[in-house]
Amino acid sequence: MDSHQTPIVVEAEHLRKSFGDNHVLKDINLRLAKGENLAILGQSGTGKSVLIKCMVGLLFPDAGRLLVLGKDVADLDDRGLDEMRMKVGFLFQSGALYDSMTVRENLEFPIRRQMRSKSSAEISALVEESLENVGLSEAIDVMPVELSGGMRKRLGLARTLILKPEIMLYDEPTTGLDPITSRGISSLILEVQEKYNTTSIIVTHDLECTRIVANRVVMLEKGICVAEGTYEDLRQSNDPWVRSFFE
């Protein structure tokens, strides 16, 4: 993808974030082009999740600039953050579901909160479309506790997609899932990109997920971007550390 001709929707420049003496992000520079799936690959504790939490204003960097859809996240007030979060979907590791609500109620919740003008019929149509898109139509009236791990992930994705975000952030989307279910979730990320024309960042240490979904890969090590390229570029890298990750 030629990012010179395609709008840049996320841009980080010299981003730093520490928690006390733990310097998690030391100097992060990256750009995300519209329509692209970017995988951020690295071992646990390398700052991957901290980086995407900064992108939605759940954390704020100590230094550097972070632009999302053209706006500096650090400059946004509460209203600005709310408006930005409507355009940026965040799929947490846990799926972040409400166990006291049915599948239908879990999906209605963000619409009722963010789209108050919608009628009950419009809300029902959005819920049904969203579940159909993730292959969960038959689960509309069950409780999340009755769903498998893979189904909970799908439901979390449906709930995020219901607001039609421009950017999707996936935090370890395949963690804790068996290989077949993981491949299903990876394929679903691709389908979402094609159907909704979303731009996505996928934070992962799952090589198979990375291979399936990523147009481009950034590798993080000790809070720094150490390598960038396609999956094949990095797999055949001259750098022994980068190549070792793919063996």
From TrEMBL:
* PROSITE patterns to which the protein is assigned, alphabetical: ABC_TRANSPORTER_1, ABC_TRANSPORTER_2
Q: Pfam families given for it?
A: ABC_tran (PF00005)
**Keywords carried by this UniProt record:** ATP-binding, Nucleotide-binding, Transport
What GO molecular function annotation could you give as one example from this UniProt entry? ATP hydrolysis activity
- Record-annotated ABC transporter domain positions: 10-247
**Name of the molecule in the record:** ABC transporter ATP-binding protein
Organism equals Candidatus Raymondbacteria bacterium RIFOXYD12_FULL_49_13
